[in-house]
């Protein structure tokens, strides 16, 4: 019996759903044993090789998040049974009458399908996420996150320093993939009536978050943002 | 970039383990190969063709590393490559492809021989992975088999 080549088994591991050899693999003990060995070697890579080599290959600033083009379709997200909304409300310097309210929904694309996340949820450290934002009125939207090392990442807009205007409830195009490192990751969505420089948001988060897991977990609002800026936050616990 | 490394790093690492049989060497080679791959990020994002390309770069790099080891006189330290069950037993009775046989051929022929006898790739598949024609695969493979047989006869006779 001809078994699938090593390359075909690699393609199978990368995308089992579209693998032309899955039928063979199911009925082939040798191939399943081979795949198990390959998976163990893959674990070995993630545990011992990736952490010690990633710094020399990928600059830290570009490493923490990457954008994903293909995630669960919007319809699947909308059909999620439980939609959990986290809205921390404004910080002390928020002037309610001038500001805008905002709700942040985060969805993880998991093997079992899209799942709406709630605060402090555990997610795989390399999970793919999508964001759905509900502003009470049009506002300038930015999304950032911070980890226990105090590293702040700009998640939306994907590039540029000006938070774009969000007119209505929207699932943002694309998505982001977590950085693969276990630990807390706090996500903030901020929405302001006036144009909002993302640099200012990042700096405010960095100052407030400091470093350390406890600090990130405790930070439930970004202080020092312009008056009228609404914000919502969600804490994720990334795990292996 | 980090996501690409997480996604395809295991593929490269496994390839290097299979060809180098050494975790440390496989780790260093993986890092080196990714440094090369990341220089052509546009190609890395072409999902349809990226895996064969990565496989080819990794194979060439690791075969080259084996050649360098042999040149440094470390040939005895590296185990021969384990053949697939389907490989013809008359060609390699010990079920192994020895570095001293591989070393007698050019880089492309080595990649073809490893692809066919070690990885179990079909001719068409290997042609696509190496970016050459199926005819070239057949021609080089034929020459490899013929010369490998002669070499084994000489060395056992």
Task: Please give a structural write-up.
The complex is a heterodimer of chains A (240) and B (157). Chain A is α+β, with helices and mostly antiparallel strands. Helix content of chain A is 29%, strand content 28%. In chain A, strand 2 (102-110) and strand 3 (113-116) form a beta hairpin. Chain B is 71% helix and 3% strand. In chain B, strands 1-2 form a two-stranded antiparallel sheet. In chain B, helix 1 packs across helix 4 and helix 6 crosses helix 8 (134-156). Classes of the chains: A alpha+beta (240), B mainly alpha (157). At the A-B interface, helix 1 and helix 3 of A face helix 1, helix 2 and helix 4 of B.
Oligomer: heterodimer
C-alpha termini separation of chain B = 54 Å
- Our estimate of the beta-strand percent of chain B is under 5%
CA-based gyration radius of chain A:
20 Å
Low-confidence stretches of chain B: none
Largest interface: A-B, 35 and 37 residues
**Strand-and-helix sequence of chain B, N→C?**
HHHHEEHHHH
Shape of chain B: globular
SS summary, helix count of chain A: 7
Helix content of chain B: over 70%
Average of per-residue pLDDT values of chain A: 79
Give the mean pLDDT of chain B: 84
- In helices, the fraction of residues of chain A equals 25-40%
Summarize, please.
The complex is a heterodimer of chains A (240) and B (157). Chain A has helices at residues 6-14, 22-26, 29-57, 60-63, 74-78, 198-209, 213-218; strands at residues 66-67, 102-110, 113-116, 121-124, 128-135, 139-147, 152-156, 165-166, 170-171, 176-177, 183-192, 230-239.
Secondary-structure topology with pairs:
The complex is a heterodimer of chains A (240) and B (157).
Chain A: H1 6-14, H2 22-26, H3 29-57, H4 60-63, E1 66-67, H5 74-78, E2 102-110, E3 113-116, E4 121-124, E5 128-135, E6 139-147, E7 152-156, E8 165-166, E9 170-171, E10 176-177, E11 183-192, H6 198-209, H7 213-218, E12 230-239
Parallel strand pairs in A: 4-12
Antiparallel strand pairs in A: 1-10, 2-3, 2-5, 5-9, 5-10, 6-7, 6-8, 6-11, 11-12
Chain B: H1 2-20, H2 23-38, H3 41-44, H4 47-71, E1 81-82, E2 96-97, H5 99-102, H6 107-118, H7 123-130, H8 134-156
Antiparallel strand pairs in B: 1-2
Helix pairs in contact in B: 1-2, 1-4, 2-4, 4-6, 6-7, 6-8, 7-8
